Amino acid sequence: MTVVKKELTPEEEKLTIRDISIAAEAQTKQGDTFFLITQRWWQEWLEYVNQNQASAVNDGSASEHQFLGGSSALKRPSSINNSDLIYQAASGDSNVGIELHDTLVEGTDYILLPQEVWNQLYEWYAGGPILPRKVINSGLSQTELAVEVYPLRLQLHLMPKDERSTIRISKKETIRELHKKACEIFSLNPELVCIWDYFSHQKHALMDMEKTLDDANIQMDQDILVEVVNSNSAGGMNSFHENGAADNGTVALVEPSQSNFSNAEGLSQSKGSTRNGNAELSQSQHLASSGIEKTYASTGVSTRGSTCGLTGLMNLGNTCFMNSAIQCLVHTPEFARYFREDYYQEINRQNPLGMVGELALAFGDLLRKLWAPGRTPVAPRPFKAKLARFAPQFSGYNQHDSQELLAFLLDGLHEDLNRVKHKPYIKSKDADGRPDEEVADEYWANHIARNDSIIVDVCQGQYKSTLVCPVCNKVSVTFDPFMYLSLPLQSATTRSMTVTIFTCDGSALPAACTVTVPKQGRCRDLIQALGNSCSLKHTEKLLLAEIRGHLIHRFLEDPLISLSSIKDDDHLAAYKIPKLAKNSKFLQLIHRREEREIGISQSSVGWKPYGTPLVSPISCDDVITRGDIQLIVHRMLSPMLRSENPGFNCVSRSKTSSSAANASRLAAASEACMDSSLPNDDPRQKDMSSSKLANLEKLPMQLLDENNACIDLTVGEDKSVKLSSSSMSILVFVDWSQKLLENYDTRYIENLPEVTKYGPATKKARTEPLSLYSCLEAFLREEPLVPEDMWYCPTCKERRQASKKLDLWRLPEVLVIHLKRFSYSRSMKHKLETFVNFPIHDFDLTKYVANKNNSRRQLYELYALTNHYGGMGSGHYTAHIKLLDENRWYNFDDSHISPINEEDVKSAAAYVLFYRRVRADHHHHHSVSNGAVSSAGQHNISSRK
């Protein structure tokens, strides 16, 4: 006896998945597999399984009829289709594995499902492609679990043959495994192959076979050199030197695990050569002896000159993150002066928020050593020990975030040097409509009453923060201090979106309209931009809809829908409709055409949707007849009528005037069915409808009534149509035969453009560098608070998702700008390698300062920055610093210091920027010279007031 498998109800499916999910999540461990599933399908499934909740809330029980084919029941989703997550391989390209799109975002493009959840859904729905990903240990402590959605993609370079190959491999695999796979790919004898870290196409280090790729700091899309060596030279094998890019001499191949070529960073190129595996120089000795002297010898700069401030910091493991930040601070003129004078009297030993002065003393001591004459690199051990004591997060010898350290240092030094010994309690008063200047000064005075130090004097500014309640429009204004600005790196602050505009009154042909909107904007921004662009009348509004599969997938009616939920390859339509009275529905005209199988018999497959649906409002106050609906449809289609169409008995006209002539010819007909002055039972109305229809060609149309039955609209024009009370839409199908298509030019509804089409022109535009000004504008732009950061509105007495706008109000002497290169999501942490074009001179912030009473120009110039090379949780930090008494830029790479040209200061590695105010009044005058600052013979350098 065959057992018929019982199909589960949506509710049963939901509960099954919920129970499996709870059990699976609780037991997740390293090595488990998760599966990607497209957000679109997941959302459709969620809507399907949650569809009975509304009725359950209403009467306390799930209504049974919804699962029995009731008209309002949502259809069960079709099979899982993950194709929108992957690049479609070229046909016949069998070598290409399934590659995910590079820019997918969890929660927006895909969801991660535990294996058990995926197995169950796959058993029910099938589909694919199947996209499994492993759970790995992540984070600096290696205790966080993360799904490795994007395993490393590495570029293998085979030398001396100069062949290339791309490989995908988990960052948790060992170098030995990479070595083995590389030998398999290129069919090599493993005995004769060594593998090099080939970062920036330079040999950095033979790689330790036992290390993982993660531990070796190997990053996404990094180059790996696979070198075949000959076995006939002394000491084993001579390594082949490509373009002489490696060290200056023969590097004898040793068992890679014994090689000490890589320093702790794994990315800094070792200076000098080691022979026969004898790599016994300690790292600091090696860097100090072979690096700095050689660097300066090659550039012709005296290594024992009188210039102070050119002293390196030794790397104590992975302390380049600390070294780069410290060098920027000690080369800040105000700090150099302050800590070299008698600052001890300002140390605040009783501040509970400080470190009893010990951090300030340790920093001051280190700064003095770095400004002392002589060039011997300093080992910052005492400072590192103090730092670890007060900030355990920076203890040990792991890599950390240079900006996080900088934020801790500025805050810690401020509290250790706070001149306020007893902080008064001050309650901020609401602005209550008072002038901004008065409120800002009050906030600043309250801040200074509690916080007064060299750090505040030099680095702290003030911005204006405006919150607006979306419900009651309550405006709250505060003025908050800042120590640095953290700017987002959006590839663009705006986004170009194309939407096709349709009219319902036959007055114009559909037209694609491209507008520019804020990238993080809402639907209301898009509707407003479209309205301005298409000259929307004050009596009209736009109804926005997403079109999928030639049907309306959803109306975007909520003005707060985020534009980021609309993908570049979506198709949007906007329908111009009158601002009608409330009691109206939308007639959706869905086009179908006959599709035939190509075969001997030419057998018909039936009518399939095509083109773009049209929408027209229809009043529910009166009785609607089949003839009325025909008139509305004729009116909507009239602009596409071909001039030579005989069925309309109209005057022959040119294509250019077709739309206008047709619109005027049908105006009377369309008014007949929309004229509210004539009730439907008025005999004149009936006569009017009948006479107009007599002149019109009958279109094969069917209406779906409230019982999901099809009504033929071509017969019985006077018969009334019952409209469903529950649905807002009335579905009408028009079937386009080949003959009918000859009368209408339907190409206007056939090819709906994508929201954003990446053609050659836009690709070029997208590679233009992002400017620092754009980043600042993105930071200051008004946007809604994230849901987890809701604001308590004092008027509504409820938490609201207010919109927040920032403005700069008071700028500091030294402006520190942090570029937010690192982003975090549950599955992965990643780094943005975006190049930001930042000004070195004349960084003009005048127009960004909201305090218009301050009439002077706000000009800044760059004097220091930190750089980060490589990827998350690893990589290498350096600093570029301008020595002001020399008017010359230097690269500080731990112990190595070398002059660089000003044009080389800008790179995609720039991470934290240090700007100092340029005083117009002192622009061409003297500066204080105290070993740290002097402006002899240089432009745009100024003293502190």
Automatic annotation (TrEMBL):
Under which EC number(s) is this enzyme classified? 3.4.19.12
* A Pfam family it matches: DUSP
Instruction: Quote the catalytic activity from the record.
Output: Thiol-dependent hydrolysis of ester, thioester, amide, peptide and isopeptide bonds formed by the C-terminal Gly of ubiquitin (a 76-residue protein attached to proteins as an intracellular targeting signal)
Q: Name one GO molecular function term.
A: cysteine-type deubiquitinase activity
Domain DUSP span(s) in chain numbering: 8-136
Where does the record place the region Disordered? 261-284, 925-945
In terms of PROSITE patterns, this protein maps to: DUSP, USP_1, USP_2, USP_3
**Broad enzyme group:** hydrolase
Which regions are flagged for Polar residues bias? 928-945
Q: Where is the USP domain?
A: 311-918
Q: Any idea what this protein is called?
A: Ubiquitin carboxyl-terminal hydrolase
* Gene label: UBP5
